[in-house]
Amino acid sequence: MGHVSKTSLPAPDHATRLREALLAAAFTADGLLDLLGAPAYAALARSETVPALRATRGEAPLDTLVRLFLLQHPVASGRAAAVLPLPECVADGWLTESDGEVRASVDVRPYGGPDGQDWFIVSDLGCAVGGAGGIGSHEEGVVLGIGGASTTLAGITVRRPVATALDIGTGSGIQALHASQHATRVTATDLNPRALGFTQLTLALSGAAPADLREGSLYEPVAGETYDLIVSNPPFVISPGARLTYRDGGMAGDGLCRTLVQQTGERLNEGGYAHFLANWQHTEDEEWQDRLRSWVPHGCDAWIVQREVQDVTQYAELWLRDSGDHRTEPAEYAARYDAWLDEFEASGTKGVGFGWITLRKSVAAAAGDPSIVIEEWPHAVEQPLGPAIEAHFARQDYLREQDDAALLTGHFTLAAEVVQEQVGLPGAEDPEHVVLRQNRGMRRATKVDAVGAGFAGVCDGSLPAGRILDAIAQLMNEDPVLLRDRTPRAIRLLVEEGFLEPVPPAGRAAG
Ligand SMILES: C[S@@+](CC[C@H](N)C(=O)[O-])C[C@H]1O[C@@H](n2cnc3c(N)ncnc32)[C@H](O)[C@@H]1O
Description:
This protein is an alpha/beta fold. It has helices at about 15-25, 30-45, 50-55, 60-70, 75-80, 85-90, 150-155, 175-180, 195-205, 255-265, 290-295, 310-320, 330-345, 365, 385-400, 405-410, 450-460, 465-475, 480-485, 490-495; strands at about 75, 95-100, 100-105, 105-110, 120-125, 160-170, 185-190, 210-215, 225-230, 270-285, 300-310, 350-360, 370-375, 410-415, 420-425, 435-440, 445-450, 460-465, 500. Strand 4 (about 105-110) and strand 5 (about 120-125) form a beta hairpin. The longest helix is centred in the N-terminal third of the chain and has 17 residues, at about 30-45. The site of S-adenosylmethionine has 23 residues, from helix 7, helix 8 and strand 7.
């Protein structure tokens, strides 16, 4: 594929010794925060190095490591030797030495795991942070460190013990690293062989088990194999021509994301989850929901959440800035910008949606009754969202099996940390409407009427829904038969959105 690799990567042979040295010097996420302070730490995440340089003027071991591995400053060999196993680091290629100074050959960035693990992400120099700050390199095969998209995907992934996990487009290996904590066997693929090298280093330096590394496009390297978990933060950018492997899929429009999603049906084991970040076109002749629905493979349930939509100009500008094109000649910038708009015009694209796609392989879906939820939810959520995603599918399973009569015999509890808000004019006696709001998971809010609010309020699992409705009917002077008739739809919605949780028969209190 002609991926350039200017420098060869370090050998992982003495990664354990290097890890011990890094930890001994408190080169960890917490250690960094302590040394730099929150503003300089945050600035570093924006690719701004000046505050961190000022905060590391001391001679302590941690100053040395931050300067070497995060700020790409040369350090006197003697100073480095006091902190690191220098001969091994130089021999293995982590550091290069000349004129009595050493420099890092890769970026090594502390990253705190979800259970307080001290991990490290290894990536190309100057590429640790993506996003609007610009990556500072136009080289095709560069391997980036982690950005917001990486941690979002890690957060939405369902984390339960599985036998096999697959990370497609592993880059510097963050998803494979997370998966290594709950999957017996992790396979990581990338089109860019350099990325596989970085993933190996990230895993080794983080003290994680090695992964099965395979070079190739999408599912090609794992033909015929199936997995319990599949994750991918793919090169989803919809752009004219593929210039940057880490972000440009090289298929027209959203074709790479579509192909990835469509081919997942054959690659998942029964009950297995797949999580993807993706971009999709909003075209003139199709609703975006219909477009996405057509991607869902047979045999899979799906939950697709659109987090953001940008018009074509915002989108082009975002990615032109990401690759630093705004710093080129104005005429060159204008030509590139024009090319993006040409491409969008030719494909009838008005905007681009960004979001999350979760698939789950299920028996019901295979039998022709998939649960497919496609929604827009641009509001803040509680990360990690993985547990809420797993719970969504469990509730869908439950609802699929209950008709209205069955719902009325069901027992429910109000989900944790749901509050009621009354909305209306100040001083008014009665609220105009009542809103239930979750403080966990998706942090949803939903309007309810007086019956809905009253019903949710008494749901502690002890009484069946129908009995609660009868009591409410009496209290509000309503016809209980009519109330039993019209309420199941509302209950269904409250369950679907996670405000109410069904209580399995075994868990019910006597009532
Ligand atoms: C946005 S990066 C994601 C890196 C990492 N998984 C993360 O979450 O931060 C996308 C990765 O996909 C790789 N890639 C690009 N095209 C690919 C393809 N057709 N098949 C597999 N991987 C591909 C790139 O080399 C890059 O490492």
